[in-house]
Amino acid sequence: MLAVGRELLIGRTLNTNAQWMGSRLARRGTLLAEIETVDDNLMEIASGLKDCLRRKPDFLVVVGGLGPTPDDMTLKGISNGIGRGLRLNKQALSMIKEHYARRNLGSMEMTPARKKMAILPIGALPVSNAVGTAPGVKLELEGTTVFCLPGVPSEMKSIFKESVEPEIAKKLGSLHRKYISLKLEGIYESALAPLIKTELRRYPGAYIKSHPRGIREGKSRIELDVAVVSEHKEKAEEVAVLIVREIRSAIEAAGARVVSERVGPPRAQG
Is 254 found in the same domain as 233? Predict the structure, then answer.
């Protein structure tokens, strides 16, 4: 994910789009591998795009900077980064006009600011935005499918669910993720580390992550996440349950205890 917007860098706006997208992909068994945030600056956007493409991801989702205002310069930055010109896209312009019609705004004058949202890099395809005005944008670049989405959360989520997710599912296939979260008491992270290392050696494809939650009443508290992804639902469940059983046994043997066990995706920490 490439997030564009000075408001994200100066703390004016929390990047809830990245949190939502990461959680959404994790539930599908897919990983958001990197989040890069850049300023509303043509050079930074172009540089950020190149940095992301060097990793050769299956998909790159660029979020923010598609609107009509001068600081919305994502598509120009991408154009600079890939060495392509910009061109008014008639299909994108039609989408914008249809949006105004749906909102009963009549025949809105296509001012330069409104037309700006339909000026796309050459070769790009507009993507329908059922919630807002600016269309999303799709590009195929160096083996990576690039989607550019508006930064407004409701618009980003709508386009992601309608247009991005189906392509991810088609390319990556059906994946199943089994997630179990444990709350531990009476064991320090340094003592837990060797247990995690042992399990990762046994099950190298698993995700096991500890989250210290401080000390209360003289006892260390830790949340431990265990996740297993597989093309087969039964396999994911089987391995996750085995890991939890082995960790639980080792923790109890060390004199600590598992306070609770919860099945399901993680709850975001605010």
Answer: yes
Looking at the whole model, is its pTM more than 0.85?
A: no
Written as six digits, the tokens of 248 are: 């639980």
CATH number for 247 = 3.30.70.600
Among 153, 172, 191, which residue terminates a domain? 172
Task: Give the DSSP H or E segment for 50.
Answer: helix 42-54
Diameter of the chain measured on Cα atoms: 73
> Which token pair is 64?
């923010």
Q: Which of 184, 193, 183, 263 is nearest to 228 (CA)?
A: 263
Whether residue 159 is found in the same domain as residue 201: no
β-pair partners for 4: 38
| Assigned token pair, 263 | 């099945």
pLDDT per residue over 97-151, tens digit each? 998 888 776 667 889 999 999 999 999 999 999 999 999 999 999 899 999 999 9
111 contacts: CB under 8 Å, gap ≥ 6: none
With a CB cutoff of 8 Å and minimum separation 6, the contacts of 19 are 268
